[in-house]
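Sanity check

After download, print the first record. It should look like this:
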Amino acid sequence: MKQAKDSQIKNLAKLNKEWNELKKITKETKKEIAPLVSMENDTNTHLIKKLEEDITLFIQEMKKRQFFKYDCGVETALDKLNGVFGELTVFEDKIKDLGDNATKFGNPDLINKAVKDIESIKITVDNMKKLWDHIESCQKTFNTYMMTKWVETNPLIMEEEVKKLMKSLKEMKVDRKCNAYGGILEEIKKWQNLLPLIGELADPSMRDRHWDSLREKVGVQFIIDENFLLKNMYDLQLDKY
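Expected structure tokens:
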């Protein structure tokens, strides 16, 4: 029993000695590699700053892209918007690598700005996709109106539909100065101005002399019959008169 106990004491003493030596070596090694660690930390910090600059340039360039312009068209706009997510993966890979390094060097917050900027881009793209989905909905509605026969036109129902389209547009969180927003805004406003006029012209009290007066005013000869479409009335640009 005594021999076993003495053996354990010797082993513990040996382990303690080895542990102290290891701590000494670790301390010395840490001191030796400190300049290298500092240099790597500086390099990583520099790369993060460069990444932030690249993301800023990307944001500035993205503002000039087609999907911010109304004449881009729904199909092209949505395709281009979906493509942005693929481009962002390059930045996200760098953020992961540089962020891991920043954490190892004890500076995890250094990567925060880059992360927030990428999230901001994604929000912008998502909001623009919602805008173009709404534009598509508006255009489909207006195309249906255009092909409606004059005798089947119900301006009151149309006015309510257009009012809802305008309400949905104004609730969207997009840059209202962008061309795509302004384009569909103008289209909706045209219908908002036109439909009350159509409501008056569709009134049963309209007589031939009233139509003659209108033809003279717009300088266009047209016949109101079963083949006359709302598009024909739209093309008269009555809101100008």
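If your output differs, re-run the checksum step. Summary of this record's structure: The helical segments are 2-62, 74-104, 112-146, 155-170, 179-201, 208-218, 230-234.
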